[in-house]
Amino acid sequence: MAVHTLSDGVTSVQLPSTLYWEDEFSWSPIVQALEYSFTGALIVQEGARLAGRPITLSSDPNRAWVQYALIAQIYTLASALDKQMTLTLADSRVFDVMFRHAEGALSHNQVMPGEDYYYLTIRLMQV
């Protein structure tokens, strides 16, 4: 079974391939600024974004439940300052990433009280 892998070169954490990239197409590689001149003409400035693409891997009620031990492993990675890692998706795409601490790098909710299964969201960004 194919898996996603998050690695810092020393530690590798295998993530279920059923975690889906929820914001894959919501980020634009182009940044654009619009402003009007004194004459009323529209001035458009565009540039390429070089980094910062969000990669949010999520589970939902029907798939990708994870156990507490996996959440603890990811939390350990997320607890290091300036941690750059490699994310390899199950389809072999590879990204250099960091956790998005400003938004909460990691969140989880228990599927059912007393059970060791959780919904998981991992917030990364491409660097």
Structure description:
There is one protein chain. With 127 residues, the protein is mainly beta. The protein has one domain: Elongation Factor Tu (Ef-tu), domain 3 (Beta Barrel). 9% of the residues lie in helices and 43% in strands. It is built from one helix and ten strands. The strands form two sheets. Strands 1, 2, 3, 6, 7, 8, 9 and 10 form an eight-stranded antiparallel beta sheet that branches. Strands 4-5 form a two-stranded antiparallel sheet. A hairpin with a 7-residue loop joins strand 9 and strand 10. The mean pLDDT is 94.
In short:
This protein has 127 residues and is mostly beta strands.
Keywords, separated by commas or semicolons:
127 residues, elongated, 1 helix, single chain, eight-stranded antiparallel sheet, 43% strand, Elongation Factor Tu (Ef-tu), domain 3, mainly beta, two-stranded antiparallel sheet
- Mean of the pLDDT scores? 94
Poorly predicted segments: none
Per DSSP, the total helix count is 1
What can be said about the biggest beta sheet?
Answer: 8 strands, antiparallel
- Percent helix, as a range, is under 10%
**What's the number of structural domains?**
1
What's the SSE blueprint?
Layout lengths: L2 E5 L4 E5 L3 E2 L8 E7 L5 E7 L5 E5 L9 H11 L6 E4 L5 E6 L6 E5 L7 E9 L1
Antiparallel strand pairs: 1-2, 1-7, 3-6, 4-5, 6-10, 7-8, 8-10, 9-10
